[in-house]
Amino acid sequence: MEKLLTPATLGLLAAVALLAYLVTRRGFFATTATFAASENNDSEWPLVWVRPGSWPCLASPNRRVRVYWEPPVAETVAQAVLTAATRVDEILDEVFPRLRRPRLRLTLLADCHHPRQRVAMTGFGLHAMVDTADQEAWLASHRAREFLFSAVPHEWVEAAVALRLYWRDRKTRWVGEGAADYAAYRVGLALAPEVARARLAILAERLGPVTGTECFDLTDFRVATQAQPGKPTEAQRRARRGYAVSFALFYWLAERRGPAEVARLLAQAMGGSWPTGARARRAFERALGSDGPALTAVPLAWVAERLQEATRALPAHP
C-alpha cells in the first residue's frame, strides 16, 4: 500500500479531485466554453474569430458583468448596455437566488467592421451588432431591447443549468429551457413588456395549431439538427414545441405554487454532487401534484392556455 501512495500518485489524485470540484461546484467550464451565436448567422458567410481583450471595457460593481465595445461604438452606448445588464442581473438574483451563474461578457461589435460575417469568440458571453450609423436609435430599437431583456437573461440562466445538468443528462433540456424562458419573462415583465410579449408570440408560433388531446413528452425534449437552412425537419418542428411546453410548466408552477417554490425546485434539481435528470423529474413531479400535468404527457391545449395567461398578465400597450 505504501508503494502505491507515492508523491506522484497522491499528486495525480489531488489534481483529479480538484478538477472534479471545479466542474461540479465552480462552473469551471464557463470560462472555456464557446458561444458562437451571432445576429449574422447565414451559414454561407465566413466565420470570423474576434478577440475583444484589447478593447475598452466597463464592469458592473460586483464584477459579474463586463461590457467590451469595438470602436467606433460609443462609450455612452456601452454604459447604457452595462446599466441594463446590471439590472437584469439583479432581477435574475431575485428569480433564482440560489442559481450560480457564470460571469457574463457582453461584446458590442461595430456592424461596419463585420459585413456579411458570422462572428465567434472564446469564453462565455453574448455579442450584438451595433448600428454605428445611428447608435442612439439602435439602443432604443426592439432588436437591442430584445437582446438585453430576452436573449441575455435566457442564455445566462440556461448556461448555468447546462454547466450542471446538460452535459450529464441530455434529457434535462426542459429544465434549462423552462427556467431560461421563465426568467426572461420575469425580466420582460419588469423592464420590457413588449419584449416578453414578442417572445410569447414566438413560443405560440413554435407550439403551432393545437387539436384534440395531443400531448408532449418533456423528458424526451431535445433540439433536433436542422438539415437545411430555412427548411426545418419534422423532428425539429416537434422539438420546437418543447420550448413552449417547458415555459408553460415553469409559469404554471410559479402561478399556482409561487415563485419561491420554482426557485426551490430548480435548486433541488441541480443540487448534490451529481445532479441528474431523474432527480429533477422527481422534484418537479412532486410539485406538480395531482392537479398538474404529467411530465411525460403535457397536453398541448393546456400549454396554449398558459401562454395566453402569461400574455394577459403583461401590462397593456401604452
Report the portion of residues in β strands.
5-15%
H and E string: HEEEEHEEEHHHHEHHHEH
Report the biggest beta sheet as strand number plus sense, adding barrel if it closes.
Answer: 4 strands, mixed
Contiguous low-pLDDT stretches (5 residues minimum) are 21-42
Tally of helical segments: 10
Commentary on this structure:
It comes from Geochorda subterranea. This is DUF1570 domain-containing protein. With 318 residues, the chain is an alpha/beta fold. The protein folds into two domains: 30-140, no CATH class; 169-312. The chain is built from ten helices and nine strands. The chain has a four-stranded mixed β-sheet with strand order 3-4-5-7. It has a three-stranded mixed β-sheet with strand order 1-6-2, with no helix packed on it. It has a two-stranded antiparallel sheet with strand order 8-9. Helix 7 (234-257) crosses helix 8 (259-269). The chain is globular. Mean pLDDT is 85; it is low at 21-42.
Describe the structure concisely for a colleague.
By secondary structure, the chain is an alpha/beta fold. It has helices at residues 7-25, 75-95, 135-140, 142-166, 173-191, 193-207, 234-257, 259-269, 277-288, 300-312; strands at residues 34-35, 47-49, 57-59, 65-69, 104-110, 118-122, 126-130, 215-216, 298-299.
